[in-house]
Amino acid sequence: MILLDGKATSNSIKEEIAAEVEKLKQQGKKVPHLAAVLVGEDGASQTYVNSKVKSCERVGFDSTLIKLPASTSEEELLKTIDDLNNNDNIDGYIVQLPLPDHIDENKVTLAVAPGKDVDGFHPENVGRMSLGLPTFLPATPNGIMEMLGRYNIETSGKNCVVIGRSNIVGTPMSILMSRNTNPGNATVTLVHSRTKNLAEITRRADIIIVALGKPKFLTADMVGEGTVVVDVGIHRIEDSTKKSGFRLVGDVDYENVAPKCSAISPVPGGVGPMTIASLLQNTLKAISLQH
């Protein structure tokens, strides 16, 4: 069985990006500058954003972290986004989700300038992705594609089942896997909470990508022998044996599913690091688009 090690793969990508940044510096060109906007005190979001800032430092990017209180109004956040759109020093930025309930996420997504939308969420970038045009690809799906490619996982002609239809992972993942690319060229089935006979569908799959947001949802009886499984989920489960008081699990019942797989991504250390690496790739791409 192959362990799809996102941590090791993302480190390789960061080394490649750092080399590119060093070239830019030697040529006297602008160093990429990534900004992140964090609204509120969500612990998981804070950890994730801090990891992005550290990754920027590692590859030689400039970075800016804008922390706003949970009481920030929608109007105030939109003003911050407008300022970032018009700041020529910022090449790309992200607004960390989820946002407080009183702020409309769709309104915020639409306000981000497509040319600085390194998360790849703006409708213009989603449309360009769907048409196979150059654009910022959503970070998590693109990170998964990078991982499959670098581990030489055969996807062409394979039966791929994507579990979950979110705009951030499931839907763009189904588009990328079906495109005429490598990785890609798979026959894709997108399943969700209303799908009937789900286990029958997943058992026939060569590749399963699970992005449902339910701990240990994919069980061993839902997986055929030799399947490739990519686990996008991450959840904190109480565990008194751990110093932290919790452990991290994914959407896959890893211990029981892994023995049936030809390749599987772990949680943690699988898709998460690849998402950050993909975000850095998009920020480097922003430099070439803007300058």
Walkthrough of the structure:
The chain is an alpha/beta fold and 291 residues long. The protein has two domains: 28-113, Leucine Dehydrogenase, chain A, domain 1 (Rossmann fold); 139-271, NAD(P)-binding Rossmann-like Domain (Rossmann fold), CATH 3.40.50. Helices cover 40% and strands 18% of the residues. The protein has helices at residues 6-26, 43-59, 74-85, 105-111, 123-130, 139-150, 170-178, 198-203, 254-257, 271-290, and strands at 2-3, 33-39, 62-68, 92-95, 159-163, 187-191, 207-210, 227-231, 235-238, 246-249, 261-264. The strands form three sheets. A six-stranded parallel beta sheet has the order 1-11-8-7-5-6. A three-stranded parallel beta sheet has the order 3-2-4, covered by helices on one side. Helix 7 (170-178) links the parallel strand 5 (159-163) and strand 6. Helix 1 (6-26) runs parallel beside helix 10, helix 6 crosses helix 7 and helix 6 (139-150) packs across helix 10 (271-290).
Key features of this structure:
globular, 2 domains, alpha/beta, 291 residues, 6-stranded parallel β-sheet, 10 helices, 11 strands, Rossmann fold, 3-stranded parallel β-sheet
Number of domains: 2
The CATH homologous superfamily of the largest domain is named NAD(P)-binding Rossmann-like Domain
Question: Could you tell me the mean pLDDT?
Answer: 95
In whole angstroms, the N-to-C terminal distance is 44 Å
Radius of gyration: 19 Å
| CATH level 3 topology of the largest domain | Rossmann fold
- List low-pLDDT spans: none
Gross morphology: globular
| Helix percentage | 25-40%
Main sheet: which strands, in order across? 1-11-8-7-5-6
